[in-house]
Amino acid sequence: MQTWTEMKEIQPLAAQMLMNSFHKDRISHAYLFQGNRGTGKREMSILFAKSIFCKFREGAAPCQSCRDCNRVDSGNHPDLHWIEPDGQSIKKEQILHLQKEFTYTGMESNRKVYIIVDADRMTTNASNRLLKFLEEPSQQTTAMLLTESGQTMLDTIRSRCQLLAFQPLNPERVESKLIEEGVSQSNAKILASLTNNLTEAMEINDDDWFANVRKLVIQLIEVLQNKPNEGLLFINHQWMPHFKERQQLQRGLDVLMLWFQDVINYYLDRENSIVFTTEREKLEQAAMRWSRQSAAQCLSYILEAKRKINQNVHPNLVMEQLTLQLQR
Prior knowledge:
alpha/beta; single chain; Zinc Finger, Delta Prime, domain 3; Rossmann fold; 16 helices; 57% helix; 5 strands; 5-stranded parallel beta sheet; 8% strand
């Protein structure tokens, strides 16, 4: 359950604009929520819908406990309609069904709200049908279109919506939210450095596969430090079996980059920026092996390896070359 106070912490501008809609009694007939996955678009749309339907609202704040608020939360409010992709796209038939629903009088009140998730995935026919719907808006109808890529939608649809840009979450915010969700502080710091998408961070944390990535990165560093002649053996027998897909390998290289960034942060006394907080002793040992300049060079090698993976160069060859570069 989200409140406007919480949403203002996550998306201050978007939340304030929607709150102003109630204070000024100027709710638009259509809104376009545009921003990356995990930036709070869905949560904001639910809260906005509750504020619209709640009969005990104070200012913009819904009571959060009445029948209307509870039914919005449970997804069972008869005057709130959700449309999500059916397979790979949102089809014309889904928009036609929505239009038919809106010809009926509201079940609970005169207001009706519809939320279209991944609106950029509407087919051309669905987009054109929705456009006709938007061209003849009812005073009692409010639409919220949620998208990660508003630029791919029809300009004529965009022009009929009030655009709200959802900004990426800052790392500190992601880290604190992860800790609130029960993620350990050390993992939260790493996850917040990998992505500013809270949803994605939680998915990564829940993935058993990722739990071993951190261990493998530390093991690789120890091999490079103490047994450099066994580096290629480690890559072929332990590293590559875990990173079977290119996307997984990219994730592993991302974590490896964080390690060498930590080495640089160690040299610069940026304690708050270090993400491998529980490997302090190993980090000090690494600083004896790699200078600040060589750590920066290692980051360049890893970036080049990531580019080669994207260019479909054979992963084993990429990792073998990178290993030789890192142990110089």
